[in-house]
Amino acid sequence: MTVKLFDHQERCVSSMMVNPRFGLWLEPGMGKTITTLAAISRDAYRTDSILPTIVICPKSIMRSAWLKDSSHFPSLRVKVLASDKAAERLPNINSQWDIGILNFEQFKMHAENLIKRGVRRLVVDESSKIKNYQSEITSAVIRFADQMDSVWLLSGTPAPNSPTEYFPQIRALRRDISGDLYWKWVNTIATPQREKLWRKVKGGKPQIQEIVTGYTQSEKQRIELERQLAQCSIAMRKVDALDLPKQRDIVRSVQLSDDESKAYVQAANAFRVEFADGNAEKFRAEAALMKLRQITGGHFISGPIVKRIGFAKLDALNDLLDEIGSKQCLIWAEFTHEIDAIKDLCASRGESVEIIDGRTSSSAGEIAEKFQAGKIKRLICQPMAAGHGITLTAAHYAIYYSLGFSYELFKQSRDRIHRLGQDQPCTYYILLAEDTVDEAAYGVVRGKGKVSDALLAVLSGNMKTLKD
């Protein structure tokens, strides 16, 4: 091994050596990939054999994180098994490798082939992907984990929305701790909160149904969850383990143009009427919030038609780029049409610019390397495509042109610049259209409230509840 580990990484490796089924809950930027490769390498040295290992992770970090970091461990044969060509996957699985890497969907399709190949260790990177105990991929991972000699789960935010999201992860690690019954386990660590809401019934009138809207924890329940997690995982924060520079948020309020304001008010009023009549099912309400978020970015979407209705945020971004000047920066945006508009703006300013979104995610690692080498001035990223595993510490400025409601993605995206290798204070500029859904989203991702609360506030018009 040619890489020197930090003290917190050495501690994690030591824990993994004595716990073949273990979770690493390390904040992004603390080197989970290197730590895990070191543990595999040392285990192989100790036993004089390599336990065949499959790593499942988001597509964006297969090469940019795992394959790149494996270069520090030349004794390990590491191969990306995933392929866009279905005919190549099974031959890849049956080829020679010590550590094979797949994304979640392709793992689900080839789990049985991996068992036949002789895989005995499972590593799940970004294990929050299995936080939903009812999803197909979660079921596939748990079935596979039950047949493994070793299971290691890695995540910076394993339960971003609720402590109940730990259930499938503990279940994959230690069935003896969690048991098999979700609600039986939940009642030991949390108390469900239920509300009665109008829900549309197919072919009939709306009815009042009781649904779980959140959870509370007593001190006893919190201690019980901590006891369970301590048996099968370790959690660390960057602030405790690393001497990293400070972070600060700067909110820039944006005054929408007359056309943007008019479109926003009309759309919001229409959704509120629908909501008040009891016709807004959950998926419809989420679609309403998305429509409102798109309007604050200056666009009105109707089917396949994207109409530009204003430039308020784009003008604010232009001013902000003037302030940042020649320094590199990231620009985070949720929607493709926003990304394209921002790219055009940067190009018109004569600045080198690249994008990482769903269209370019397969090249994310190469683009990140160019950015790190100083060849790109502005990098526009979509959180779903670039929020995991990529190091972008060449910048210490990040701008959020638009926000979603995912605390996990927000935290992960922030940590692209605030991680090992960063030696400058990190500044995050948040562009928020005044008195709009933008403020609701920012409240949620800062942990100031729940998505359900934000949804109700926006659709009822009671935005005051979302402000400090």
Please provide a written account of the structure.
46% of the residues are buried. The strands form four sheets. Strands 3-4-2-5-6-1-9 form a seven-stranded parallel β-sheet, with helices on both faces. Helix 6 packs parallel to helix 7. The protein is an alpha/beta fold and 468 residues long. Helix content is 44%, strand content 19%. The chain has 20 helices and 17 strands. Helix 6 links the parallel strand 5 and strand 6.
Key phrases:
about 475 residues; alpha/beta; Rossmann fold; 2 domains; 7-stranded parallel sheet; 6-stranded parallel sheet
Helix percent reads 40-55%
Outline the low-pLDDT stretches. none
CATH architecture of the largest domain: 3-Layer(aba) Sandwich
Q: What is the CA-based Rg, rounded?
A: 23 Å
Number of strands: 17
- Reported by name, the CATH topology of the largest domain is Rossmann fold
Quick one: CATH class of the largest domain? Alpha Beta
Strand content: 15-25%
The averaged pLDDT comes out at 89
Tell me the major beta sheet: 7 strands, parallel
State the gist of this model.
The chain is of the alpha/beta class and 468 residues long. Helices cover 44% and strands 19% of the residues. The chain is built from 20 helices and 17 strands.
